[in-house]
């Protein structure tokens, strides 16, 4: 029997408000999928003159995706505030007592649109602890997340969700508009022979990462005693989805590239939600030394190194960082 998203949420015992929010985010995902499917016909590959808080040139679709997701959250009535990659300051909605805060990357991997590549949306749901209007309300560790979700706009549109009870994959049935459960309680194998990293940054990596990748590249003749494969999609959603589907590790480490950055990915709307989804599937996620989910955020748009995926490889990486 195929189970729909709303049926899963009630079966998982999710509170009504959380279920409503997840369903609204799913609607946003459908709207974004429809938008980007128009491609150049709707100018979705066009860049804007504006930059976001990270200094990235925004694309029209980055902004439109932000607006589509925001509109659904207003409609849900259960969201007090939204932190988005595309807006400098959190947006406070007219719902101060609403139970949730949402931190989002409305369009992840958006540069891939220029090559008709896969993109996604990432959402992190936090409790609204009552300090409405105070931007510091978003600075909660990832372990406080009530739910995490991404949508993947690929050949099929997927919705991957955790409400803290394992990680589930839903596929959009385009005829009915329903997200149907197609993979339940995903498990990431503890071992792997595949890693994902942007190797063009190699000269900027720290010793622990140099050692790890070097050992993988030595293959069957090296200390690992086997050959490793490498992949890099330049879209975190796609890279993480591959790991959920067939294992592996995804690495965006600390580096000394100028201007100095603590990794590339953003803690509150990339690293934390993906770490919850991966750990709920039995994987690990660290910044090198500590679990990503245990980090106390200091700024809304802060970046963080992220090493996630196959448990035993992540523990090996933690050990290499300890020894360095
Ligand atoms: P975004 O498009 O939301 O700004 O995120 C892009 C991120 C992430 O999706 C991906 O893993 C990473 O940037 C790619 O980085 P490189 O440009 O170094 O490949
Ligand atoms: Mn961006
Ligand atoms: Mn992103
Ligand atoms: Mn983005």
From TrEMBL:
Binds 2 magnesium ions per subunit. Residues 10-183 form the Fructose-1-6-bisphosphatase class I N-terminal domain. Mg(2+) 2 binds at residues 105, 108, 270. One of its GO terms (molecular function) is fructose 1,6-bisphosphate 1-phosphatase activity. Its cofactor is Mg(2+). CDD domains: FBPase (cd00354). It catalyses: beta-D-fructose 1,6-bisphosphate + H2O = beta-D-fructose 6-phosphate + phosphate. Pfam families: FBPase, FBPase_C. The keyword Ion transport does not apply. InterPro entries: FBPase_C_dom, FBPase_class-1, FBPase_N, FBPtase, Fructose_bisphosphatase_AS. Substrate binds at residues 108-111, 198. Its EC number is 3.1.3.11. Mg(2+) 1 binds at residues 85, 105, 107. It is found in: Cytoplasm. PANTHER family: FRUCTOSE-1,6-BISPHOSPHATASE-RELATED, SEDOHEPTULOSE-1,7-BISPHOSPHATASE, CHLOROPLASTIC. This is Fructose-1,6-bisphosphatase class 1. The gene is fbp.
């Amino acid at each position: 029997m195929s189970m729909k998203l709303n049926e899963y949420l009630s079966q998982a015992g999710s509170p009504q408000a959380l279920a409503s929010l997840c369903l609204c985010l799913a609607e946003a995902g459908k709207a974004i999928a429809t938008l980007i499917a128009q491609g150049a016909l709707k100018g979705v590959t066009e860049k804007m003159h504006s930059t976001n808080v990270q200094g990235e040139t925004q694309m029209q679709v980055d902004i439109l995706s932000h607006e589509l997701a925001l509109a659904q959250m207003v409609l849900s009535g259960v969201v007090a505030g939204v932190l988005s990659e595309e807006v400098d300051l959190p947006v406070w909605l007219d719902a101060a007592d609403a139970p949730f805060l949402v931190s989002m990357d409305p369009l992840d991997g958006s540069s891939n649109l220029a090559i008709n590549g896969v993109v996604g949306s990432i959402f992190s749901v936090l409790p609204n602890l009552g300090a409405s209007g105070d931007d510091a309300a978003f600075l909660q560790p990832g372990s406080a997340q009530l739910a995490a979700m991404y949508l993947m706009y690929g050949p099929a549109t997927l919705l991957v969700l955790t409400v803290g009870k394992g990680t589930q994959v839903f596929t959009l049935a385009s005829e009915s508009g329903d997200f149907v459960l197609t993979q339940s309680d995903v498990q990431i194998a503890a071992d792997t022979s595949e890693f994902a990293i942007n190797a063009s940054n190699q000269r900027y990596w720290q010793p622990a990462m140099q050692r790890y990748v070097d050992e993988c590249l030595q293959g069957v003749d090296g200390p690992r005693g086997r050959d490793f494969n490498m992949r890099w999609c330049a879209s975190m959603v796609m890279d993480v989805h591959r790991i959920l589907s067939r294992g592996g590790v995804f690495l965006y480490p600390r580096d000394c590239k100028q201007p100095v950055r603590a990794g590339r990915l953003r803690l509150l709307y990339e690293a934390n939600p993906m770490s919850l989804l991966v750990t709920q599937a039995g994987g690990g996620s660290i910044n090198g030394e500590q679990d990503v989910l245990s980090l106390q955020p200091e700024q809304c748009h802060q970046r963080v190194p992220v090493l996630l995926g196959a448990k035993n490889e992540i523990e090996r990486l933690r050990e290499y960082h300890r020894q360095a």
